[in-house]
Amino acid sequence: MAIDDLWYLKKRNPDTKKFIPSKRHGRGKRWRVRYTDADNNDREKLFDLKRDAETFDLNCRSGVAAEVKVSREIGQLTFAQYAQRWQESRESGWSVETRRRVPQNLRKRLLPAFGEQSIRSITLTDVMAWLGRLLDDHTAKSSIGLYFGVLKTIMNAAVVDKVLDDNPCDGVNLSHVLRGMSRAPKWVPTEDQVLKLAGVVPRRFRAAIWLGAGEGLRIGEVLGMENSSRCMDVAAEELHVVQQLRHSREHFGGFYLAAPKSGSAGTVDLDAVVAEEVTAHVNEVGPVEFELPDITSDRRVTRPAALLFTTTRGKLITDRYWSELWEDWRSAADWPREGTFHSLRHFFATTLMSNGVEPQEVQHALRHASLRITLETYVHWLPKKDRPRGLIGQILRPAKGSRTGPTGDQDQH
User: Fold this and answer.
1) Contact indicator for 172, 334 with CB cutoff of 8 Å
2) pLDDT score, position 188
3) Which residue in 79, 80, 213, 344 could disulfide with 114, CB within 3.0 to 4.6 Å?
């Protein structure tokens, strides 16, 4: 657990020796407390006053805060235990077919996946990973719908019983899942294919490839990158994705700067290798300054913007110009026709996901509006976790060895 001052960086001004104000200085709540909740998930809570943050932090550390407090019985309740209670309390009202189907679905599909987990620890990520495995195993879509329906019903009951605060199944768009994860990329390049592409792209545009593959930027966001702290702060290792380059002759007479797609502006970590490539680009190619309309805020302004990427004649890049360049590079790198600049964003996301980065962190890096979008797109790249064999037996063996009770010599009734 920790308390962070969001208004000041941890670095000091070398002249004044005072802490340097952050970009959030004077805006929003100042103090952040990071803690682990009752489900062992990392959380944070913001406060206006430091004393309130310190009180909450102390309550979390001592285990009295509601956010970290959970009864021992509920905290240790497994999915299998709750599912058994749920079944026993409801099966008297089931039809013959339901009495046959639900226990079978539980035994064959739900308990192997979730049975030994604490029911409070099951997350949206766990549910999406399970659905992804079912699809990978070519399970019939109608069967997946039935299995998911049983899981969601059990979790709903747990919410009503106040065992859970919310149902992780509520974040699943099953229709997307049953369409085979419709958001999933058609093609994702390998590391070697990305490096081969970077090798055939001229120096003038190579940093654009690194911004796509190393930061997950979209092409409009790359072409809108400025040589200023507005977009990149190398010292703080931050990349500020705040704009994209757009074109509308009708409304703006040509090029203009707009907010990123779907309000996905944000600050992400700046990879050291990407920073080196961009710095080399600035030194060897150099930015070109333009006067451009800027509608990234509520008020439209026209301002100078030193953009990193331009044509060989120092002009802004049109869609047609970029498409012609890309077709040549794709062909030279032996990429398939499905290989677009957006494929670099898919490479970025799947590399993070397959290397064990938490889906919430991947969502933040991609600036997706919701975790569901990230999971629906990249769930197939979640690392598969095999259930250890014999786990229940290992847990019960000590109890079995010390058990006392009726023996075979005693009367049996």
Assistant:
1) no
2) 94
3) 79
Amino acid, single-letter form, for residue 153: T
CA 346, 210, 229: angle at the middle one, nearest 5?
110
Regarding predicted confidence, which is higher, 70 or 260? 260
3-state secondary structure of 358: coil
Torsion of CA 245, 251, 253, 256, to 10 degrees: -20
Mean pLDDT score, 381-394: 65
Q: Tokens 């997946």 belong to which residue?
A: 144
Region 170-194 average pLDDT: 82
Query: Residue 271's CB: how many other CB atoms inside 10 A?
Result: 17
Residue 10 CB coordination number (10 Å) = 9
Architecture field, domain 75-178:
Orthogonal Bundle (1.10)
Alpha carbons 101 and 371: distance in angstroms, whole number: 32
DSSP state at residue 179: T
Nearest by Cα to 260 from 240, 244, 238, 239 = 244
pLDDT digits (tens, 9 = 90+) for 13-57: 888 888 899 988 888 899 999 887 766 678 889 999 999 998 888
In this prediction, residues 194-206 reach a mean pLDDT of: 96
Q: Which CATH superfamily is domain 191-380 in?
A: Intergrase catalytic core (1.10.443.10)
The most distant pair of C-alpha atoms in the chain lies apart, rounded to whole Å, by 99
Query: Could you state, in order of their start, the residue ranges of all structural domains in the chain?
Result: 2-69, 75-178, 191-380
**Strand-by-strand arrangement of the 266-269 sheet:** 232-233, 238-241, 266-269
The rounded mean pLDDT for the chain is 87
Distance CA 137, CA 399 (A): 37
Nearest alpha-carbon partner for 129 in 361, 365, 356, 348: 356
Tokens of 225: 């990158």
